[in-house]
Amino acid sequence: MAKPIELTDDNFAEQVLAADVPVLVDFWAAWCGPCKMIAPVIEELAKELEGKIKFAKMDVDNHKQAAMEYGIRSIPTLLLFKNGTVAEQIIGVVDKSNLLQKLERHLPESV
């Protein structure tokens, strides 16, 4: 069962930038209500899209480097990385169908 991986400043480059599949990074914090609202949606999609998109979470309170580097000013912010660069940015809570539609645009044709 796929589950979003926990990112740190130390493993960000390896897990996200060097990934061979698109990676959706959820920038979040424990105190953030909207982050808690979108978390179950991300977990559902992680299971449904296993092997097609990697899902990851980054706690911006404990790991600030990547959040600063990518200009995260509001959470939740979801960044979809493809080939090491940001391909899509989603800020705030979105419903599952809307998020899935945005992600499907970035799936490899052969999958």
The CATH architecture can be named as 3-Layer(aba) Sandwich
Give the class from helix and strand content and strand pairing: alpha/beta
Quantity of strands, as a count: 5
CATH hierarchy class name: Alpha Beta
Helix content: 25-40%
Helix and strand pattern: EHEHEHEEH
Q: Cα distance, first to last residue?
A: 19 Å
Give a short account of the largest sheet: 5 strands, mixed
The number of distinct helices, counting runs of at least 4 residues, comes to 4
Structural features:
single chain; 111 residues; five-stranded mixed beta sheet; globular; 4 helices; Glutaredoxin
Structure description:
With about 110 residues, the protein is of the alpha/beta class. It has one domain: 3-Layer(aba) Sandwich (Glutaredoxin), CATH 3.40.30.10. The chain contains 4 helices and 5 strands. The chain has helices at about 10-15, 35-50, 65-70, 95-105, and strands at about 5, 25-30, 55-60, 75-80, 85-90. The protein has a 5-stranded mixed β-sheet with strand order 1-3-2-4-5. Strand 2 (about 25-30), helix 2 and strand 3 (about 55-60) form a beta-alpha-beta unit. It is globular, with a radius of gyration of 13 Å. The two termini are about 20 Å apart. The mean pLDDT is about 95.
